[in-house]
Amino acid sequence: MTFCMPMQRAGKSVVRRLGILLVCALVLSGCDRGPQLLTVKAVAARVPSLAPFFDEESGLGHDSTVRRQQPHSGLQAGNTPGLYGGTRKPTICDVNRLKKFLTDPRNDRKAHVWAQVLKISQDEIPAYLDRLTPVLLRHDTLVQNHDYKKGRAAPFNSLLEAGIAILVDEQGLPAVKCSCGNPLRPFAGDASRISVKFENGNKKWDGYDRASLVAVKPAPRRIEQLALVDVDNPDRGITRPAGTTGAHDSPFDTHERHKVPEVAGMGFGDASQRLADKGLAAAYGEKGPPPDDARVTGSDPAPGTELEFGEYVTLSVERGTAGKTGRGSGDGTTGETGEGRTGGTSAPPASGSTTPGGSGQPPPSSGGATTSSPPPASSPPSSATSGGPPGASRSSGSSESSEPPPASSASASRPPPAVSSPPPAVSSSPPTSRPVTSAPVTSAPVTSAPVTSAPATAQPVTSDPVASDPVASGPVAGEATSTTTA
């Protein structure tokens, strides 16, 4: 008995230890289920970089203080009116000084690395800088930053505080941080899975709000001029031609009202650009922006509604094209930054209300409601039939053709009917009135000759198979859904 007691105690101790190890293993396995948080280093305004490309004490650029704006979503197009701010002071960014520094033979190594980051050749640096435009951030903005360490570029994800001076390229993407000359690239992570680190003098700034961070995706086409808000006087706007530093600025009144243009029937990218030309911003209701070629079916507010500069117009696009978000407009951002606050899952109808939002019910389609009856079997579906872009109708057809057509299974199970009693859809009705499954394909001639003049077995089938017709139970490409963009 005296020998068994220690053995029992030892057994209980082992069991207890195994239980603790099992609990730890379960906890660790649960922690590994979700993706790891992406570390993002905060970069505050007027705080020098630890390893800059350019000596910040030389006055290459100067940050400012701005009033932070609440963005409509976490992903903004580079041509969004009011995305960036400006000032009438000429010292925001000295592009000529940066050009001299990077073309100086003594800085050849830095220039070579700098050009590599921006995917240009070293000889292209002067011309590239001439196409950039100085602006001030109006939002805390996510980018991929680059320090210069040991002769190489050291990339890191960073959050630039609103008020930092940067240079943007011809599509509105951040390209250079002015004060240190560090090259910038689009943020390529998921903004909903980040951990912002405030360190090395970059203390958490006043007004910091995790829900107000933005990333920038490229504009749908080259920007001719940027519509900025004067950070010293928000009632005044600044029109700055791309590639200029302020000498050719022209002011405008930010309270002047602009009519919402007609954009139904346009691609999403072209519609967004038309709104931007009017000083209005495009919004979308989905988690990510639709592809640029997604067909717009309506807007909220409706065309003709007057809005002030920078207000948002929610665009609705066809359901068949809205899901194919090629976020990738060349930027990692882009979907990249799918914050859960990019708008929700449904957009408001084109009801003519003056603010984005609404009931969330999809508006009626502005075109192509012909999908309730199938098209003729002798003609394949086209973009005109589906109401969407050519690419959308082709993709819809290809997805449906992978399923076996109903008629083929019927023909395999029973012989074709006698020639003397052809299906009425062939002899007397237009193709659109014939149900898709009314007869096997091989049983009816499709030529203009009478049915009784040629047996069905001797006449080759010249029409497209039934599988080319849209299946009534499949997705309707002309049906509209709401999406929003900013």
Walk me through what this model shows:
With 486 residues, the protein is an alpha/beta fold. Among the domains are: 40-252, no CATH class; 256-366, 2-Layer Sandwich (Trypsin Inhibitor V, Chain A). It has helices at residues 4-31, 95-103, 108-117, 125-130, 268-277, 319-322, 383-386, 390-401, 406-413, 424-427; strands spanning 38-43, 75-77, 84-86, 133-137, 141-149, 152-160, 165-168, 174-177, 185-186, 194-197, 215-217, 225-230, 236-241, 250-253, 257-259, 281-283, 296-300, 306-308, 312-318, 480-482. It has a 7-stranded mixed sheet with strand order 8-7-4-3-12-13-14, with no helix packed on it. The longest helix has 28 residues, at 4-31. The relative contact order is 0.13. Mean pLDDT is 72; it is low at 321-486. Residues 414-425 have a biased composition (Pro residues). InterPro entries: DUF6777, PASTA_dom.
